[in-house]
Design goal:
By secondary structure, the protein is an alpha/beta fold.
């Protein structure tokens, strides 16, 4: 875009979003609207859990469907492999069934072959389902790049009955990912940054991000407890929508900043940190951004208290790191600040030392907070 031209405000979204208990086995009518030949991508665990039932439903509805097993990493090689299989099947719809990396891979395959895309998440652990981008990793699980698409998914279908049976850790991870939305978006908006949608934030993008955070502070604890019981409640529905739709629209059309950049920095490390989910690493990134911005104690503790209740990692030890490991922390900060990262969407330019100090400050503050509250 020419620098002499004004930068527009941009808002993007999926064509259709459907949420409710039991709707996976009522998906045929929605799928018929976007294509005739459906390739379903799911990992082996998800396929055994719910894929066979979905195939029976589609078969009864006279929908021609085929499935392929996702091998676990949203990498260029896996996308190419599945793209060739999709072309061989002559698919006009790619269906991603599963978690964030499966869904990001399905979006990439659909883009490569020019097909429609349907996204069926089985957890509410990330805001990947609604966006027109994928996070691409290398074969070792290290963050590689963001890959952008011309359009968002044609259909996002969220079966809360399935999600309620998933481990509560996944919902907590999704809450952490979604809690970053307004923290990052308000910083990006203040900096007049360019969003993932390719322009400045709209009023709607900002309002969605703010509503996402308000919803989570209001209902996250109830929803987490409902998930522990394996039940769907109004609070659970609200949080699943916040994790998936509000966070997805809010981050994409509102803006990202340091929380996700620090997450991406964590992927540059080796070792036990890779046992953590996307959202768990984002949680520490969010606290680090709040510390970097000089957030008052009372505000910082709103986030910290919720994260502790949800069992999210809030100390360096929980990330398999330590304040003394300056080499690793500097590696994280350096990766988080590399050219093109969203850490530059702040009103000031952070340095590696500032990011390292923020990460250590979170650890120090949390330890004192826990001691003070006998946690």
């Amino acid at each position: 875009m020419s620098p002499s031209k004004p930068i527009p405000r941009v808002f993007i979204s999926p064509s259709r979003y459907v949420q409710g208990p039991g709707i996976l086995l009522d998906s045929a009518d929605h799928l018929k609207k976007i294509g005739q030949r459906h390739l379903i991508i799911a990992d082996e665990f998800v396929w055994n859990m719910t894929g066979n039932a979905l195939m029976r439903h589609l078969d009864q509805a006279d929908i021609h469907a085929h499935h392929e097993i996702f091998n676990g990493e949203a990498s260029a090689g896996e996308i190419t492999r599945l793209g060739k299989l999709a072309e061989r099947f002559d698919a006009d719809v790619i269906v991603g069934l599963g978690g964030g990396k499966t869904l990001d891979t399905a979006k990439a395959v659909a883009d490569d072959i020019g097909s429609a895309c349907a996204i069926f998440p089985t957890t509410a652990s990330t805001d990947a389902p609604t966006s027109a981008l994928s996070v691409i990793y290398d074969d070792q699980g290290q963050f590689d790049r963001y890959r952008f698409y011309d359009k968002n998914p044609d259909l996002v279908l969220v079966d809360t009955g399935i999600i309620a049976k998933a481990p509560p850790r996944f919902l907590a991870s999704g809450i952490a990912d979604a809690m970053a939305t307004w923290v990052e978006a308000r910083s990006a908006i203040a900096a007049n940054a360019i969003t993932m949608a390719g322009g400045h934030s709209t009023l709607l993008g900002a309002a969605i991000g703010e509503t996402c955070e308000k919803t989570l502070f209001t209902y996250a604890r109830q929803a987490y407890q409902a998930n522990q019981a394996g039940i769907v409640t109004p609070a659970f529905e609200a949080v699943v929508e916040a994790n998936t739709l509000l966070s997805g629209l809010g981050f994409e059309s509102g803006g990202l900043a340091c929380a996700h950049a620090i997450h991406n920095g964590f992927t540059a490390l080796k070792g036990d940190i890779h046992h953590l989910t996307h959202g768990e690493k984002v949680a520490y990134g969010t606290l680090s951004q709040l510390m970097l911005l000089g957030t008052p104690d009372s505000e910082f503790e709103r986030y910290l208290a919720l994260y502790i209740e949800l069992g999210l990692p809030v100390t360096l030890d929980a990330l398999s790191l330590s304040a003394d490991d300056t080499e690793s922390l500097t590696a994280v900060a350096t990766a988080a600040l590399k050219e093109g990262e969203t850490s530059h969407n702040l009103a000031f330019e952070p340095t590696p030392d500032m990011v390292v100090s923020a990460m250590i400050a979170v650890d120090q503050y949390t330890r004192h907070y826990k001691a003070r509250h006998h946690l």
